[in-house]
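ok here's histidine kinase:
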Amino acid sequence: MEKHKMLPKQTTLQTMVVDSTNVLTMLMQTSKIAAQQQDIERQAEMLTAQKKIYHSQQTFIYLLVSLLLLFLIVSLLLFYSRKLNRRINQELVLKNKDISRQSEQLVVMSKKAEEASEAKLNFFTKISHEFRTPLTLILSPTEDLLTNGKLPPEIKTGLNFIKKNAFRLLRLVNQLMDLRQVEFGKIRLHVSEQDVVAFCNEIILSFSAIAQKRNIDCRFITQHRSYLMWFDADILEKILFNLLSNAFKFTLDGGSILLELTVDSMQQELKFSVKDTGIGMTKQEQEKIFDLFFRANNEVVNSSGVGLNLTKELVEIHHGRILLNSQKNVGSDFSLTFPLNKNAYTNEERADHIILRDELKNLENIYTTELMPDAKNEANILVDINKNLTDKATMLIIEDNKDLQKLLQSQLQSDFEVVVEGNGRDGFNKAFDIIPDLILCDIMLPGMDGLLICRQLKKDIRTTHIPIILLTGKASEVQHLDGLKSYANAYIAKPFSMTVLKQTIETMMYNYKRVKEHYTSIGNYSYVPQEIENPPKNIGTPLTNKAPKKKSDRRFTSEFISIVEHSLHDEAFSVESICQQMNISKVQLYRKVKSLLNVNVNEYIVNARIQKAKYYLENEDLPIGDIAFKTGFTSAAYFSTVFKSKTGSTPKEYKRLSQGRG
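and the structure:
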């Protein structure tokens, strides 16, 4: 049988014959079927409608449940929010109470601060007046005495010191008072329309005497014969006096100072320029020059660091600006800019009339007296530091205040060769150059502070023996302790009594001399060559049993003696040889040996050679010529001459006597 062969299919259908016997039945059945079909269709439609109702109800239920959930969530959130708000409101109420209480406290504190500020200002005002009264009592009789032509020059010099420094103190009092008024907002601007050219001419005239005496070209330059502008005469006067006096301080004799006035009509500004050919400033100094109590590093003049800070404050009160352009060793240029339009000032700041000034003469005295040179030329007062050394002890004074330099020198130069330095670094170097017998040193110095100078000198073997007295304006116990920690021998606070200073110096030098005499005895020693292993008991190495107390001094003495001992045989041995081996200068060596051993270096070498020769004469059977050679003498004849001058007998006589005693 073949696969996939098509087979014929036969379907047998049941049939029936419709006749009169079954037609009715068939008809009824057909009708019934039709009715049932209609019921089915109707029920299907109802089912569809029910499904729609179900779906809509289901959606409604979902929506209702969602709304209920949302309502519940919102209710919870509202409840939490209300609870949170209630807590926040309670906290705010508490904070508001705290703020109210703090506000009340601030009002009270503000009132107290205002009262304290007022009290401080009143205190400074009273202190200012308390200073001015004794200053007046100092200045008045001083000026009367200066008019006395019978006084000797040295007395007049002292009186000029008093007058100059009294005016300086008065200027500082006035400046500090002005600063406090600025700080407490008590300085009020009162501008009026005045001739600024005439105003500047009047101020520049105040400096004409000092300019003439110091040969300084001081001029006022402007293109205007007169010019009206709104300004406060008292404030502008203080500004210009401060800047001009500052220029005179830092300008050397023979220099120039210019006050220039220009008008910028386009910018509605008036500009001042104060130029000088002084020492100038570095960039770093220019950044801080207007800071209160800032002092630039310079040795020309000491400064309080108040004037320029006050000037800047006054310029700003006057609605102006101040700028500085300076170059080291070339000069400085202070530029001031002020508004021309009177509308730049408020109604309260504008005055209806010119306010009369009565302080010009007072300011002139205060600022220019301090700048006046002394009757004697400074070059004649200060000692020439290169002059030959004398028998006087040498004192090094390191002090940046010129007046105090001169005062100390005039008081001490009768007993000391006084050398003066105004810069800390220069003073430190000078101490090594001259090896002084005593140092007076200020603490606050340009270049290098006094405490560091003291510590470094005390650590160096060349200068450790030098007594150092610190002079300072820092008088507290802590600062005093800092001075003593730097190994200073004495600490004297300014202002000091010259009698106390002199007595301190005298006592220190006396004690130093006694210690030196006790611990050094160059004339009474025996020499023992180092090659002798078992020397007699009555012979000792020079100074080993009577050495200085200080470890550094003992080290120096030991090194010096060792160099001399090892070189006595060398006829070319000299002071220069010792200096090269100890790496110090001749001046340093002479002063150090003199201070520690109380003898001249050359004398020490000769004595050491004679002591060595005496040892050979007493203990060795050597010809006189060999002994002379072994002790560094150039010839036997010269050796005999020196030996006789030191011992009173010739080498042969000394040898015969010593061997005869033996």
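+1. The two ends are 169 Å apart (CA to CA).
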